[in-house]
Design goal:
38% of the residues lie in helices and 11% in strands. It has 235 residues and is α/β, with parallel strands linked by helices. It has a single domain (33-212), classed as Rossmann fold (3-Layer(aba) Sandwich).
């Protein structure tokens, strides 16, 4: 853990102060995505690193690099119970191809069933996401010091404001891909002959749950007709 972690007050599980997080951002800013991942496992205890993936449109890029650098890294998949069959098939393909170790995270069964019977995805999508995505992840965050995400700045206005490191609800978020461009991502996928999610060919650029995803550019197909643009995990 960086020496600055002991300086100043902190409210995150890694014990990092605001000054320490700012220093990490300065240290990691000049590095590329792959270099950032490699350094992460020297600066933080590997067993305290949480990596999540939705196995969405181009997750192969993110997971290919993670699996090459640390094959033993467990990938956490939040299974909302509402995923497209194609998403689950894509997950199986990447697990097989990259030799991934995946743990599925699910909501409390009764709460999930209630969200289904109340059709919360229609009446209150924020609450639906809270039950089926946010709460399950919040429950395991205290077990980790840092959470690795695959957010990219060009995806939304909110994501464009994020730094490589940030403190989010008691954990340090690590956004190593935040300044990766869409062109860079797609070039890597082509170079390594990696598969896109099957629904990309049908016009889906961003893929979430079946009830809340339609074809569209960027994230325009998520929660169409509603002001919602994020599931709540990244706020």
């Amino acid at each position: 853990m960086p020496a600055e972690a002991v300086l100043g007050s902190s409210t995150n599980s890694a014990g990092l102060s605001a000054a320490a997080i700012a220093q990490l951002n300065r240290d990691y800013a000049p590095l590329g995505f792959e270099e950032r991942i490699r350094r992460l496992y020297t600066d933080f205890a590997p067993d305290k690193v949480l990596v999540t993936s939705s196995f969405a449109a181009t997750s192969a890029y993110f997971l290919h690099i993670i699996s090459r650098i640390r094959p033993s890294q467990v990938i956490t998949f939040v299974d909302t119970g509402f995923h497209f069959p194609q998403t689950l098939a894509y997950k199986d393909e990447l697990v097989s191809r990259f030799g991934l170790i995946v743990q599925d995270l699910r909501a409390d069964a009764q709460q999930h069933q209630w969200s289904v019977s109340e059709r919360l995805y229609e009446t209150d999508p924020d609450f639906c996401c809270s039950i089926n995505k946010v709460q399950p992840l919040e429950a395991i965050k205290p077990d980790y010091d840092i959470w690795v995400s695959s957010l990219m700045g060009w995806q939304t206005d909110h994501r464009a404001t994020l730094e490589v490191f940030e403190e989010r609800r008691g954990i340090i978020k690590f956004n190593p891909m935040i300044n990766v461009t869409q062109a860079e991502r797609d070039a890597y996928i082509r170079e390594h002959a990696l598969p896109f999610h099957p629904l990309v060919a049908e016009g889906y650029s961003s893929i979430g749950c079946t009830h809340c995803t339609v074809p569209g550019e960027g994230r325009s197909g998520r929660w169409a007709g509603k002001p919602k643009t994020e599931c709540g995990l990244h706020y």
